[in-house]
Amino acid sequence: METTIVRGPKAPKDPIKKKPFFFIMQGKEIFGAPQPDGRGIQFIYESDGRLINAARLAGNITDDYMLELLKTTEGFKKMVHSIGVSVSSRIKEEKVRFVFQMYGATQADPTSTQISLDFETDGMERVIKMSDVDWKESDREPGQIRFEFPTPGIQASVDVRFYLNNGFVAPIQPLESMVDFGSKNYSEMIGRSLMQLGNTARLEKVLQKAGKGEDVTLGFIGGSITQGAGAIPIHEKCYPRLFADKFEQKYSNGGKVDLVKAGVGGTPSELGMVRFERDVLRNGGKKPDLIVIEFAVNDEGDETKGVCYESLVRKALALSWKPAVVLLFAVFSFDWNLQDRLGPVGVRYNIPMVSIMDAVTPQFNLLPDDGRVISKNQFFYDQFHPSNLGHQIMSDCLIHMMDEVNGKTTGLEDGIDEKELSSIKPVIGADFEKVELIDRNELSRLKKKYHISGLEEGSFNSIDKELQMVEMDKKIEPVAEFPYNWSHNEKSTSDASFKMKIKCSKLLLLFKDSGSTNHGTAEVYVDGEKVMDADPLKVGWTHCNAVIVFNNQESACHNLEIKMAEGMNNKRFTILGFGVVE
Predict the structure, then answer these.
(1) Rounded distance, CA 108 to CA 516, Å?
(2) What's the Cα-to-Cα distance from 17 to each of 21, 354, 429, 442, rounded to whole Å?
């Protein structure tokens, strides 16, 4: 008797997942940061070359043509067939919305395309076909990725890959090996970070204080890396927090460690020196025992080429309680920082210097069997910022420096005091060592010192509350930078200038940058002569900008005037404050 075999339906094939692909995120940590509407969102910006760098780091893409296509929406559509997304969290039923937003004429262009999909954080890959997307004519470039959660505080791991259209070939995708923190290679890598130990007397004093069971305050000032960018969650896994926690665990004998974290994304020492007293010393409320200065990847645009940086270093060294001052040199993914320019400052004052570039870059191009400890994709969250692993390495490099000092007594004097500092010739310059911040809050206190008179707010009589927000210290809740400002808004019916008479030798203008076209250019005049245009759209996103209005040797009375440029009265412009030297 013939047997009839009844076959069930075949499982459908998935032709998309057979296509070549490359990662732009692989095993990346995300965190739903609290938003005003109660949601939690992780923002990942992909404009200005960030997507290209993600393709290099996570996807091993080296083909210049493919990388060039990622610059524009049209190029992206030509190459990418589908986007595969998977999100894994502890609770698989958690809901998440994936959004891939194109930018139009501006970042905030409401007519640009937003590719979105709602799903659960169960680790399963969901695929979005680009042929199903309703593309908009205004699309200019891939802009940002968002992972949106209904509630804040959710931590997850994500993979995002681009499946390619016919005719495109992707390289073999790299498989990452675990970082062996206990290995000899790891120890050697960390050891390379110590550029210079210098005079360790001030560091010895910090360790002795902790060893006696006294409370210790650790201060950090820098850019977005010090703020914690790339760390998930930012307030717990950033290198200052990791270092503070490890310091307390390893060196404190019952005392507490107070963390003062004052990193502000996208800003150089030109702004850092002005906000130092407010953000690090908290206007006299804090006396850090240790101050770490990290601006080695932010100061490329510093118009003084290091004078502002050295001014900040001298400002910290001159504090009456003689805190330990450490220079930390972070690194970008293209193996770059400014330690060659800024390192001589540390040499001149014989203070400790730690280079993350010296530690990690020599081993990036090795294979694991040849001594590679960590890959670039593992170390960097994006082209500018370290991942959790990267932040851990930065903390370990600082701890290594402390270990080199711990238990030692050199008998050296604990560094130079303010009087001795004045006799040391700067290696680059120290024009702004005495700079002070003047804003609405500080105006009355410094009015007499700088002979400020005739102040007229004019049309700059509003207060801007849409400011750069920064997570400080151990907190996740961001605070506004420079809330005591003078702002001209688009509803103003006046074109009256902001005017101020002031006696000083040097003056910086602090103003708000923005990515919104409702902001416009202001003109700056000194003693009736135009000295600059302040354009808030030049950088393209909301952050704080500092520019030198004048830098004179002698103090003199000047008439400052700021007014909206012709045709800009219906735009916004915000004066965040001023940096002033007597």
Answers:
(1) 7
(2) 8, 45, 58, 60
Q: How far is it, in rounded angstroms, from Cα 19 to Cα 491?
A: 53
First to last CA, the chain: 108
Task: Please give the Cα distance from 27 to 173 (Å, whole number).
Answer: 13
DSSP 16: G
What pLDDT digit, counting tens, does each position of 314-362 carry? 999 999 999 999 999 999 999 999 999 999 999 999 999 999 999 999 9
Query: Is the backbone of residue 481 left (phi > 0), alpha (psi -120 to 50) or beta?
Result: beta
CB contact at 8 A, 181 and 333: no
**130-135: long-range contacts, CB 8 A cutoff, minimum separation 24:** 130/77, 130/80, 130/81, 130/82, 130/83, 131/81, 135/73, 135/77
CA distances from 19 to 22, 54, 164 (A): 10, 20, 6
Half-sphere exposure of 355 (CA within 13 A, CB side): 20
DSSP H or E run through 343:
helix 339-349
Please tell me the distance from the alpha carbon of residue 68 to that of residue 73, in angstroms, as a whole number: 11
Q: Give the whole-angstrom CA distance, residue 501 versus residue 524.
A: 14
* 41 phi/psi in degrees, rounded to 5: -135, 135
Q: Kind and range of the H or E element at 310?
A: helix 307-317
The pTM of this model reads 0.87
pLDDT in tens, 143-177: 999 999 999 999 999 999 999 999 999 998 877 78
The β-bridge relationship of strands 353-355 and 324-329 is parallel
Amino acid in the structure at residue 290: L
| C-alpha span between 78 and 168 (Å, rounded) | 10
Query: Which of 511, 501, 513 lies closest to 561, judged by CA?
Result: 501
Among the listed residues 294, 297, 309, 334, the one whose alpha carbon sits nearest the alpha carbon of residue 56: 334
Q: By three-state DSSP, how is residue 455 classified?
A: strand
E strand or H helix at 141, and its extent?
A: strand 141-149
Give the rounded distance of the alpha carbon of 377 from its chain centre.
18
Cα separation of 525 and 533, whole Å? 9
Q: In which order are the strands placed within the sheet that holds 194-196? A: 194-196, 353-355, 324-329, 290-294, 216-222, 257-263
pLDDT digits 0-9 by tens, 57-91 = 999 999 999 999 999 999 999 999 999 999 999 88
- Which residues lie closer than 8 Å to 540 by C-beta, 6 or more apart? 48, 107, 513, 515
Q: Are 492 and 504 in contact (CB under 8 A)?
A: no
Cα separation, 282 vs 479, whole angstroms: 14
What is the Cα–Cα distance from 159 to 168, expressed in whole angstroms? 21
- Residue indicated by tokens 């960018």: 229
Structure tokens at 535: 């354009």
Tokens 């194109």 sit on residue: 102
Q: What residue has token string 């700067």? A: 426
In angstroms, what CA-CA distances link 543 with 265, 468, 488? Answer: 8, 5, 17
